[in-house]
From TrEMBL:
Lineage: Eukaryota, Fungi, Dikarya, Ascomycota, Pezizomycotina
Annotated InterPro entries: Metallo-depent_PP-like (IPR029052), UPF0046_metallophosphoest (IPR051693)
Coiled-coil regions listed: none
Name of the protein: Calcineurin-like phosphoesterase domain-containing protein
Protein's organism: Aulographum hederae CBS 113979
Length: 188
């Protein structure tokens, strides 16, 4: 959408329906195919929208273990988008701010992250939307500027609260709305 007047911005979105094959679902891939699936994510990506979550980030399974994709985690470390939105693992619903390890030799290790901050919904228990404010005004701005891109906000926005409950007893999560700081330019 382009507005004729007022401030403007541009950003790059990468989207993919793929997730690790764990059943007879469409767009499944075997673990050894993960690098091939995710390597097409451009370095210029500001927002990544994927079905699968990255390994260790908002990826809790019904069994309580980490069930995300390791290849996606490595690609997010390399690309470092401001925002990575996923679903797929219903029990993993939530938000994490990931501070990436900027040491480029670390890709071969498990230390891709310096730290992870888990978001707690201040309105948990109410029926209002869940709002994540990543703007300067909100005090939690993503620190990605001037090619020193060190953070990604991972959002598992699964709307169904639990995987495959009994029919008629499906619990739903509130929607998660993210306010994200983007560069703004005025048309002259």
């Amino acid at each position: 959408m382009f507005l004729a007047t007022g401030p403007h911005t541009t950003f790059s979105v990468f989207g993919s329906p793929y997730s690790p094959a764990k059943g007879l679902w469409a767009f499944g891939y075997q673990e050894e195919e993960g690098d091939k699936v995710w390597d097409s994510m451009p370095l210029s990506t500001d927002i990544a929208v994927t079905h699968a979550p990255p390994k260790h980030h908002c990826d809790t399974s019904a069994r309580g273990d980490s069930d995300g994709c390791e290849a996606l985690r490595r690609v997010l470390w390399r690309v470092r988008p401001k925002l990575a939105v996923c679903g797929h693992r219903h029990e993993g619903r939530g938000v994490e701010r990931v501070l990436w390890n900027l040491d480029t030799s670390s890709e071969a290790t498990t230390a891709l992250e310096e730290a992870t901050e888990t978001w707690v919904d201040p309105g948990e228990g109410n029926k209002k939307i869940s709002r994540v404010d990543l703007t300067m005004k909100g005090g939690k701005m993503i620190a990605n500027a001037d090619h020193i891109i060190g953070q990604t906000c991972v959002v598992n926005a699964a709307i169904t609260a639990a995987s495959y409950g009994r029919p008629g007893r499906m619990r739903l999560n509130k929607p998660i709305v993210v306010d994200l700081e983007l560069p703004v330019w005025e048309e002259k």
